[in-house]
Design brief:
Elements: E1 6-10, H1 17-28, E2 34-41, H2 46-69, E3 75-81, H3 84-94, E4 99-103, H4 110-115, H5 118-125, E5 130-133
Parallel strand pairs: 1-2, 1-4, 2-3, 4-5
Helix pairs in contact: 3-5
Amino acid sequence: MSPFSHILVLIDCSYADKAIIELVLKLLEGSKTDVTLVHVVHSHTLDQDRALKDQADTCLEEVYTQFLAAQAGAVTKLLLSGEPEVELEKEINQGPYDLVAMGTHGHKGFGDLLYGSVSHHLKHTVKTPLLMVKPAE
């Protein structure tokens, strides 16, 4: 039974998703915990926006199906647009979530500086507990 009532699962449609999905599915066993799956599209042109939203819809639908099969609580898909760290911070701070779960990419040092880090930003700007899992190599 999960001690959580509503988990927000950050999906970036990369290899990092697998580990967090598997872990959250284990957390849900025997519970009625609600789950919201969220992806943020970060685009610079209308064409890019359309293409990325199509990819994200496909990705979210696959993950949504996995969570529905777990037969826990309600499952919701949420597709946002903008700067990922800003949009996620807003969603987390305004939403009903008592846990945020995300996979990490493991950037360090220069890579973190170059690519930025959503996890780094969130751990300093949200009060909701964060569960971060680095995928196996």
